[in-house]
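Query structure, 427 tokens:
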């Protein structure tokens, strides 16, 4: 099928996520059909090339078609594609659990529960924390705390914790009991006796528009949790695997949560796989005789999926072999310099950067924000596409979060494309 046929069939049968399909189906909209990738570059069905400026929705780490990761997946497929994790185990899942837990000090986050994506990694943490409190005789702890503007996924439990009303309020009637707070100071007002856990996106709230937490905040939150006996869930679905410049965001502040949720970049961004890491203390509360019904009755068909685990193992070995985190540091500094150049534009209201994650918030040259209905951010990103940069905004914040393998030259091209797109669109 050529591009036109593909798009006609797409418009006839598909329903895309977070997408107003009426606009999508209008002839003026020109969705890309992506067919190939190599490193930080993606190619569409018309042969045009783009830098993958948002790492294929924040998932890709070492670039597309990395030979190590591709070979690991193919190698696994030559043995077996999927086997059950209920009642049996498999080598890649076992090895990956060993490798993941070894990234933390011994006897801290020593248990791994697999699921499929970020949302399910969160669901696991929520249900485990609820059951944990029941098992240790504090059944009244049934409520969750989350932060304003948070994003933790779209399944019912995960979206209960979301702090962006546009995404969550229609479903509030069926949500888990959750309360939102603006910041760490607001926690002082909270009655904690019924709180099971608090969840945070450490260092940076992604979907909120790349909003940074003040340095030291995570450490303060850990201390607050310890004082009040509240479990801490770190949602590192976005920040995990080097995105912030360290392997995990919580390492910047020497914090260990009670639950660590990993997904997007876990497989290098190749296959859907998630992991919820927790402590031996939580795990041990679930041990007992079968008839005591302490079992965690939870699971998904694809838990521990072997090709996913093989991809994740390969991604971790690429971190070691290519010294990914080391070579990333000068690129983070370069990104900071390049973005400082953008700041001079009257159309740029704010620039927020955390490691290799950046948000550029645009405004009218008068300094007024654009009305959200104008979709200014979206229009800038469409213009950037013509200059070879593919990304997606969050309202009027342009997101630049390319794969960690992006070269310095590609980074310059990306920021240049953004600059030109802003000038053309806003100027
Ligand atoms: C994307 C994201 C999720 C949800 O992950 P999915 O794989 O899309 O379900 C959860 N938390 C954060 C911080 C995310 O960025």
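Result returned for the query:
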């Amino acid at each position: 099928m050529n591009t036109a046929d593909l798009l006609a069939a797409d418009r006839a049968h598909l329903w895309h996520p977070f997408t107003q399909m009426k606009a999508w189906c209008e002839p003026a909209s020109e969705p890309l059909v992506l067919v190939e990738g190599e490193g930080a570059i993606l190619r569409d069905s018309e042969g045009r090339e783009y830098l993958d400026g948002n790492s294929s929705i924040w998932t890709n780490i070492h670039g597309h078609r990395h030979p190590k990761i591709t070979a690991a997946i193919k190698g696994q497929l030559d043995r077996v594609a999927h086997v059950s994790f209920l009642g049996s185990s498999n080598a890649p899942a076992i090895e990956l659990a060993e490798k993941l837990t070894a990234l933390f000090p011994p006897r801290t986050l020593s248990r791994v529960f697999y699921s499929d994506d970020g949302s399910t990694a969160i669901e696991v943490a929520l249900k485990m924390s609820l059951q944990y409190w029941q098992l240790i005789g504090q059944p009244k702890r049934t409520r969750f705390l989350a932060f304003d503007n948070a994003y933790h996924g779209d399944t019912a439990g995960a979206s209960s914790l979301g702090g962006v009303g546009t995404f969550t309020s229609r479903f509030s009637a069926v949500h888990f009991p959750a309360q939102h707070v603006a910041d760490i100071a607001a926690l002082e007002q909270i009655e904690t006796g019924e709180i099971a856990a608090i969840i945070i996106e450490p260092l940076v709230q992604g979907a909120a528009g790349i909003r940074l937490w003040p340095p030291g905040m995570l450490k303060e939150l850990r201390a607050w949790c310890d004082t009040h006996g509240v479990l801490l869930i770190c949602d590192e679905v976005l920040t995990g695997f080097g995105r912030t410049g360290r392997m995990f965001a919580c390492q910047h502040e020497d914090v260990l949560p009670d639950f660590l949720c990993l997904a997007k970049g876990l497989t290098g961004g190749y296959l859907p796989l998630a992991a919820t890491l927790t402590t031996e203390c939580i795990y041990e509360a679930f041990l007992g005789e079968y008839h005591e019904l302490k079992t965690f009755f939870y699971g998904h068909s694809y838990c521990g999926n072997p090709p996913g685990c093989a991809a994740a193992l390969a991604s971790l070995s690429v971190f070691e072999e290519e010294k990914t985190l080391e070579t990333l540091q000068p690129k983070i500094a370069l990104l900071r310099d390049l973005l400082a150049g953008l700041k001079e534009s009257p159309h740029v209201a704010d620039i927020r950067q955390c490691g290799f994650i950046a948000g550029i918030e645009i405004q009218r040259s008068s300094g007024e924000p654009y009305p959200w209905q104008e979709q200014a951010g979206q229009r800038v990103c469409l213009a950037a596409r013509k200059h070879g940069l593919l990304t997606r905004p969050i309202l009027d914040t342009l997101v630049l979060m390319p794969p960690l393998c992006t070269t310095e030259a590609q980074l310059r091209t990306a920021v240049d494309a953004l600059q030109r797109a802003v000038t053309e669109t806003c100027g």
